[in-house]
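User: For this week's homework, look closely at the record that follows, marking any run of repeated tokens, and judge whether sequence predicts the tokens.
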Amino acid sequence: MTTKSANLQEFTLTILGKNRHPIRQKVFDSKDFILPGTRVGVENCEPKTRKEKMVSWVQAPLSERQIEITEVMEEPNPFHHLSKAIDTSQLTLSIPHKGIKIKVADFREEALKAAPKGTKIGVALDIYAKAQYDRSYSDLVSDARNKVIARFKAAFMENRDYHPMSDEYHTDKDIFLHHPVWAPQSSIKEYKSLAKQGHVYSQYLAGVFLASNAGGYKVECVEYLLMAYENKQPEAMRVLAEFLNFKNDYYGAVQCALLSVDGGDDYSKKIVRVVLGNTSHQMMQTNHGIAPLSFVIIETLRANGFDSILREHFSEFNPDPQPEIRIAGFLKGGRS
């Protein structure tokens, strides 16, 4: 696996027949998902290079039982570390005695407008916070973070693993890599609310539950899994690829799996190969006659900027140049 340059590509994903807002590809190298004390390589050193960080992230537990299992196996518990990952700009600052609620992004904009030209950002934020709310900026943000994390942990306590003999377990196990889990609708609603405040674990869990049996396999999951991916959550795009494959949106599934692979999730290579294998027996009419759907998918990926990812990770899908393929209405997606 090669490391990435700072100049990452931007993609407009076509998911279930709809073009999404452009999204910049991510590399899974964020410290938010790497446990402190992690060591890599023969020299047993802290991961420093982007390549080392890409293989150092930990999987997010989906239930308290999964946390218990890590402890029984004497493995580090990643739950509390992962719970701290927040897109601060989306947090809501609250000053109850003044009846004020304001997004951090809006607060920053107001503070910078009010500051004299040349004032450092940190100084401008603190001066504005003390003048308007009689609190330091860091205290306001810390309070907002702590409230979000506490709400998340309370909701997480309601998550449950499905029993391995249940129909729900077997249905989800056929679709997803992660262990099948359930949460009450109240918890799913809480994850959705916290997701919109920038809490990344909640973005991921909202997506996982909405995509699976517990949430009714809802297309709404797409929004939350893309949020989590934009915050470099390493498993979100893989779950989205699995969900789209289940919905028979094969092109959407391969797009998402390729971004997941290129970010550092090697398992998603299996999704790409499974989808292309399953579609190699489905034939489509093209401007050059009948062709396997898998071939059409690959050519459409190349035409939409995925050629470099295919070349790097899937050399077997790089034959000699082929005639341009045009298929009217191909990207209409799968079932909703």
